[in-house]
Write a structure and sequence with these properties.
Blueprint: H1 2-16, H2 23-40, H3 43-52, H4 67-73, H5 77-84, H6 87-92, H7 104-109, H8 114-117, H9 123-140, H10 156-163, H11 165-197, H12 217-244, H13 256-288, H14 292-325
Helix pairs in contact: 1-3, 2-3, 2-4, 4-5, 9-11, 11-12, 11-13, 12-13, 13-14
């Protein structure tokens, strides 16, 4: 932290020296730094240089690309948020295309650099992140550029489809493999808890047909948790089947497929919990004989599969919820205004 503050102070001192130089000297010294910072997503460098020399935000590369174009192509979300948080720049810069005729939306349609893709686990979530970028850039793109063709006669949508064809296929395979594995687990739970529902612990009274432990509170716990496990696991099974039979269009990776996977994993998690409660209640009811140590031991072992699921699958569920319904990477709050 101390080193970071020292670096910021050094950067500030260096940028202050730019005010003593003429335009030619500033361009020769700062132009490369601005584009390197945009490529590496170091927004503080761009901000400090812009405060010393406001016209630096309009620097162009040899391919006539501005910092916004570099930020979109390299998926530098902090630089993108910094530029888009400044109204004049967010309106002005998207109006330009580079030497290849690529608008900022064409660049958003290109595949992200590997080191940016690898920040997200799973090909389906990577595809979702790419769609989020394309959707966000589309918001600031002038309407005439939405179907604008570059020098290769390709619109932004055509570039996106072509560039992400392999990632889409990998994401489809990942999603189907995940859904298929979870379908087997959900089907197994449905089978077990359905059989348990028609087999009352302790048996029935021969006289009136009522369960022997009908007056015991633990039997009520068993009945409720077993029914809840059946309903949640059946829901999970149906949701995963809907994933397997999905059409897998590009836009489905944005909300539809992640939402189904979230519902499927969450209901599967609940079904495992309720199944363990039902099993523990059965063991305690039949063999516990009101002994507290039996309940503690059974409950402890019942926590093992629940804990295993949390450790192995819950991080994926958290990533899905955060990526689909979280604040996201396009949050411009906290970023200062660039001078212009």
């Amino acid at each position: 932290m101390v080193l970071h503050h020292q670096e910021v102070k050094l950067l500030k001192c260096l940028c202050d020296q730019l005010t003593t130089l003429n335009d030619t000297q500033v361009v020769s010294l700062a132009k490369r730094a601005v584009f390197e910072a945009a490529s590496l997503d170091i927004w503080q460098v761009i901000l400090n240089i812009a405060e010393a020399y406001p016209m630096s935000v309009y620097f162009r590369t040899d391919m006539r690309q501005y910092i916004l174009h570099i930020a979109v192509e390299k998926r530098s979300e902090n630089v993108f948020n910094l530029v888009c948080g400044t109204n004049v720049l967010s309106i002005t810069l998207p109006n330009f295309s580079d030497t290849n005729g690529n608008s900022v939306l064409h660049l958003a349609g290109k595949l992200a650099p590997p080191h940016k893709l690898n920040l997200v686990s799973g090909a389906a979530l990577q595809m979702q992140r790419e769609l989020q970028w394309f959707k966000e850039v589309k918001k600031i793109t002038p309407s005439r550029f939405l179907s604008y063709e570059n020098k290769d006669k390709k619109t932004p949508s055509m570039v996106f489809t072509e560039e992400h064809k392999e990632l889409k296929e990998t994401g489809e395979k990942w999603m189907k493999d995940t859904a298929n594995s979870c379908t087997i687990a959900a089907a197994l739970i449905v089978t077990v808890v359905f059989a348990a529902a028609i087999t009352v612990p302790g048996g029935n009274n021969g006289g009136n047909g009522l369960p022997i432990f009908s007056n015991n509170t633990v039997l009520t716990v068993f009945a409720i948790s077993n029914a809840a496990s059946l309903f949640t696991s059946a829901t999970s099974l149906l949701v995963f089947l809907s994933i397997l039979t999905s059409r897998y269009a590009e836009q489905d990776f944005l909300y539809a497929l992640p939402k189904r996977l979230i519902i499927g994993l969450f209901t599967l998690f609940l079904s495992i919990i309720f199944m363990m409660i039902a099993f523990s209640a059965t063991v305690y009811l039949v063999f516990g004989q009101n002994r507290r140590e039996v309940l503690i031991m059974v409950a402890s072992f019942a926590c093992l599969p629940v804990t295993s699921f949390v450790l192995l699958q819950f991080p994926l569920l958290v990533d899905l919820v955060s990526s689909t319904y979280g604040r996201g990477i396009f949050d411009q709050r906290g970023f200062p205004q660039l001078p212009y």
